[in-house]
Specification:
This protein is α/β, with parallel strands linked by helices. Helix content is 43%, strand content 13%. The strands form two sheets. A six-stranded parallel beta sheet has the order 2-1-3-4-5-6, sandwiched between helices. Strands 9-8-7-10-11-12 form a six-stranded parallel beta sheet, sandwiched between helices. The mean pLDDT is 96.
Amino acid sequence: MKILIYRWNSYNYVDIVANLQAMGHTVELIEHTMVSYDEDEVFAARLTGILTEAEIPYDFVFTVNYYAVISDTCERCGVKYVIWTCDNPLISMYHRSFFNDCNYVFTFDRTNYIEFKEMGAKHIWYLPLAVDAERQDALLQDADDLYLFANDIAFVGSLYERNTYDKLEASLPNYLRGYFDAVIEAQLNISGGNIIESMLTVDVLQQVEEYFKLDKSEGSFADLGLIFSTTVLGFKVAAVERRRALAALARKYQVAIYTGSNTADLPRVEYRGSVDYWSQMPKVFHASKINLNFTIPNIKSGLPLRIWDVLGAGGFLMTNYQAELPSYFEIGKDLVCFESEQELVEKCGYYLTHEEERREIAESGYQKVKAGHSIRARLEAMLDHVTEAL
């Protein structure tokens, strides 16, 4: 197949491109900084030219995550558009273009799949994320600097300190601030579930409208509840959860963080700066005794890329519970879950002192991912669905 990929800074693009090429497909890349995911006349014209002037037609255009401007262009040009999501929910999916006939959508969150299937999406499938464990094996096998990335407990990721809620909070009346504080605290006490959207009642949203401007394109059908619960409160919950957990762990254990976020208020946590996703991050996961994952509540049931990344590097994973975890892993055998900050601290203490058990769990998770959850296997399933749908 001949495939045109629109590339942005998604972490898994390199693995996707490499595996498609290894499978014998021709892959060409296009890059462009979009004015808007929904409307960009310059990019639409450029993409139209590429698709219509190609000597050998493209079988489809592919992106990680969804772009309305690409969908509308593909629809006009009669070219299939294949999407694999890695974030949820994607506000860009809540757009009239999502129901174009050209779209072939693969979403990693089963809840998201059910939602859009019930809306009438014609070509949509559930497809979890994956990892190229063989690429990570090759990197780790030749690495002579793993000792530089060794930690008792490590976290790689954002602290979301530049979230919209912090900018908005000062302008809110006391009642709304108090209400949202309660919602945030309640969400922090729920593992593997999301109550934020249900707490945004009609009355609350009517008040929010006075302080929060809903900015969306003409073709978008995303409502205030969806946008506020995810891009505002969802990110704030993630910020609070991660800082509290890291601070609690650092009071008892050695904890390192690899991030571009400001960690000035976490003096006991060892700041290690950012790490490169391909050349350094697998070393952190492999060399650290415990690797942490905190799934942002916006991902309602699916497994984020970080879970696959850690296990594919042979790392021991400590993660919050997600509804889809038991579908792929045996909890306690392949990875370990926590449901509260106190349980996280206690379990980290246990596994730091039970090395053999910890290593067995890491090895079991690694073997399961390597055997059945490769990028190549996912891409083969994707292409089978696209071919069968024709």
